[in-house]
Amino acid sequence: MLANVVPNDLMVLYSKMADSGERGAVPLKYVETLDHGSVIDVGDLVAGAARRVAGRLTLPVGERLPPDSTVTLFRQTAWDFLTVPVADDGTFATHAIPEEPLSLSVGVRGYRLADKYGRARRAVPLAPLERDRTLSLPLEPAPAAPPR
Question: What is this structure's pTM?
Answer without folding.
Answer: 0.83
